[in-house]
Automatic annotation (TrEMBL):
Residues 1-21 form the signal peptide. The lineage of its organism: Bacteria, Bacillati, Bacillota, Clostridia, Eubacteriales. It is found in: Cell envelope. It holds the Pfam family SBP_bac_3. Keywords: Signal. This is Transporter substrate-binding domain-containing protein.
Length: 276
């Protein structure tokens, strides 16, 4: 969830070079250690529809859940999910509460400095969502005098705060623990707009086409990858091999069509343009 347009300082980096940079260093549990017991433990924020959330039966479902299960099958291990609030998910990884994060984690230069991240497995960027009964907001400057909802400490939240200052926009940014609450507030007219990942926005619009509209262009390009501890480069290599196999077999396309109605897992733009 970050990206820059217009007058912001753009950070444009090739993902391949960033992954190599971000994966250097040593010192934590190795890939063999992580998978030796035949279990891959995944940290996930279960409030982020359609990526990872609880259904009516309280079952954990979503794009990332299907992907993680397919990944584990490809690796020949069992998967276990540990739910955690987004604002604590990276600390939990470093504390070795789980082996990796598969929770719609955007690849950014800052994260590549502190973690080992895979090649992207799904495209992503941030957009602004408006209610259909209001004037659609097409650019960040058009948020002047409005209230904008964002999930706390996501790249969308970070981008909104940066754009507010650099573009001099008088917008109130209201932070939510999860996007369910943000969209409930948008529906209830407690806020005017929401800024979030494009896949999330598309899902909510598809569920409520008479209520919401994606009103802006995609403001950023920040594809999503699996996050491991910085020293776990061998684990990341194994994940990359499995991701490639799932892409080549058509499994990633199948999962994407199920949740997005289109394939967001092919021809992913790997150039990062990030608002940090």
């Amino acid at each position: 969830m970050k990206r820059k347009l217009l007058g912001l300082s753009l950070v444009v980096l090739l993902l391949s070079a960033l992954v190599l940079t971000g994966c250097s260093s040593g010192g934590s549990k190795t890939s063999e250690d992580a998978l030796a017991d035949g279990v891959l433990s995944i940290g996930v924020d279960d409030t982020y529809l359609p990526m990872e959330f609880r259904d009516d039966q309280n079952e954990l479902v979503g794009f990332d859940i299907d992907f993680a299960n397919a990944l584990a099958e490809e690796l020949g291990v069992k998967v276990e999910f540990q739910t955690v609030a987004w604002d604590g998910i990276f600390n939990g990884l470093n504390a070795k509460q789980y082996d990796a994060i598969i929770s719609s984690t955007s690849i950014t230069p800052e994260r590549l400095e502190g973690f080992s991240m895979t090649d992207p497995y799904v495209a992503n960027g941030i957009v602004i969502v408006s209610r259909k009964d209001a004037t659609p907001v097409k650019t960040f400057k058009e948020l002047e005098g409005k209230t904008l909802g964002a999930q706390i400490e996501t790249t969308a939240d970070i981008a909104a705060e940066k754009l507010k200052v650099e573009e001099g926009v008088n917008v109130e940014i209201k932070k939510f623990d999860g996007m369910l609450d943000a969209f409930a507030a948008l529906q209830g007219k407690q806020i005017d707009n929401v800024i979030t990942d494009v896949g999330v926005a598309m899902y909510y619009v598809a569920q409520n086409p008479d209520l919401y509209v994606v009103s802006s262009d995609v403001l950023t390009n920040e594809p999503i990858g699996i996050t491991s501890r910085l020293a776990d480069t061998a684990t990341t290599e194994k994940f990359n091999e499995a991701i490639k196999a799932l892409q080549e077999s058509g499994k990633m396309t199948e999962i994407s069509m199920k949740w997005f109605g289109e394939d967001m897992t092919k021809d992913i733009d790997t150039k990062l343009v990030v608002i940090e």
